[in-house]
Write a structure and sequence with these properties.
This protein is of the alpha+beta class. The protein has one domain. It contains 6 helices and 4 strands. It has helices at about 1-10, 15, 20-35, 35-40, 65-75, 90-95; strands at about 45, 50-60, 100-105, 125-139. The chain has a 4-stranded antiparallel sheet with strand order 1-2-4-3. A hairpin with a 2-residue loop joins strand 1 and strand 2. The longest helix has 15 residues, at about 65-75. About 10% of the residues are buried.
């Protein structure tokens, strides 16, 4: 049986020819076993404040701020689970987010670019990781 499959589909990726059920199960398992997926898709309560992640191309958040909210989410909602926060996790790209290291102006704290503020200088900046297309909403 394996040889027949290999002869028929040998040069293709498994996910290109596998049964639909396998693809559905793969998608279901991503959100079931991946706590970053859960965090990005859940609405949760932190100290009486409804909190969720909004996908919007006009926003970006510091990766460190997202990490802090994630750690609080895990502490409150999944106390006994140890799941590492990882910027390479597949959930980020699958859900349309992008993590980038950006130059930030030390004076105005915006993305560093010519004329971002009156004290702009290529030597007056730092680098920080941001999650693009993401906004932390707390209502």
């Amino acid at each position: 049986m394996y040889k027949n499959i290999l002869d028929k589909h040998g040069d293709k990726d498994f996910w290109d020819f596998c049964p639909k059920y396998f693809k559905e199960t793969k998608e279901d398992s991503k959100s079931t076993d991946n706590y970053i997926y859960k965090f990005l898709e859940d609405v949760f309560d932190i100290n009486g404040v409804k909190t969720y992640i909004l996908k919007n191309n006009n926003y970006m958040e510091k990766l460190e701020d997202v990490r802090k909210i994630y750690e609080e989410y895990m502490r409150i909602n999944h106390k006994n689970i140890k799941y590492k926060f990882n910027k390479e996790n597949v959930a980020w790209t699958d859900l349309g987010f992008e993590i980038k290291e950006l130059h930030i102006c030390k004076n105005c704290l915006n993305v560093s670019k010519k004329d971002c503020c009156d004290k702009y200088s290529s030597t007056n900046r730092t680098r920080r990781f941001y999650v693009l297309h993401l906004k932390i909403v707390q209502d």
